[in-house]
Amino acid sequence: MATKQILHPMVKLQRHVRSLVESDILKPTDGLWKIAFLYGDEWQHWRKELEEFEFKMQDPVSDLLRVEVWEED
Known about the structure:
By secondary structure, this protein is an all-alpha fold. The chain has helices spanning about 10-20, 35-40, 45-50, 60-65. The protein has one domain (about 10-65).
């Protein structure tokens, strides 16, 4: 019986942002702060999560997409 691996919430955010880049809604060079326009009320939660992983809102979206493994300390 295969066990279903639970995705880290940041993987879900990363996949969504990647699809936005692939759809030309965001550019890889856009700052992470632009995600705020797409997440509305949920943005405060995601901003806190990004900051816990030491992202700054001026960092380019490409930095978020470059992460291969999300681990909590």
